[in-house]
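Task card 7
Instruction: Convert sequence to structure tokens.
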Amino acid sequence: MKIGIVCYPTFGGSGVLATELGMALSAKGHEVHFITYNQPVRLHFHPNVYYHEVTVPTYPLFDFPPYETALTSTMVNVINNNNLDLLHVHYAIPHASAAYFARQILKKAGKDIPYITTLHGTDITLVGKDQTYAPVVTFSINESDAITAVSDNLKEETYKYFNIEKEIIVIPNFVDTDRFQHSNKEHFKKMLAPNGERILAHVSNFRKVKRAEDVVTMFAKVHEQVPSKLLMIGDGPERQNIEEYCRTLNICNDIRFLGKQEQVDEILSITDLFVLPSQYESFGLSALEAMACGVPVISTNAGGLAEINVQGVTGYMSNVGDTDDMAAHAIEILSNDNKLQTFKANAIAHAKTFSRQRVIPLYEQLYDNVLANYKATV
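Output:
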């Protein structure tokens, strides 16, 4: 099968999932063509993988270069030149509407191609609800040959806020358990925590919705009772504010900002507790990757997090903003070796239920169904 995947190339969950999906499909013999404005951060060489860059010319007339138009044209060229069977677009804005536009152009030339839209979260719950985008988002989702969402919560949110006329199929995010697994990095851990301190970690794009400040607030409370270090992984608009906040609490020496990291699995292998206090998460892929590495999770109970973080088993959930409760649960786990080891084992076992081997066949079956329906109507 020849599949076009359209995504954002960044460290965010939608781009990571799309890239991991494409790589897994290529390993199974499918020909995968990535279409985006930069090479995806997790994209690696494989004989069945192709990357097509969307180039957006700049002209003095445009304050904001028309990326959607350039993306549509690139889609048309890639489909024509490589005879793709279908398009799979990740994140509705602007990928679903660009796919619809590309399809209309192709139809004029006597060619058609089905497209699938996968919803990831803020394309629905935040940006998509803005009336600036809502009519186009609704239309292009409904025109999709199939719609998927990464969690039951996101499916419900989509039906709640948009007039969606088709079935939304839930296919959860997955984790590559061959890559994300606990590995022995004790020498690395001793460098960061020479006195046996517990290590906590947070991974995000440092947007307001991630509430990274709550991570620091919670850590300060944990730090008072449990010798510990905090690793802040990622980058984004709130990072500078969070660094300044750390200085006001006088705990900078025990917090490290590591920026964007490609080998995050190695960092997670030395981590004792993962913290994700988001305002909303459609799924929480970073938490799942941590669990696969044997790291219990302290999270909020927002969005789809309850679908992966099992209360009292793989970690604990608290209400958004309740850093006292988060800290109490963190201290409970970190101050008891037996409990910590139990939670670590539980995290690994639960993460395996979201393994790549279990989820990829669901996408393959969806592709087969879409293509069969498409051919039946042509």
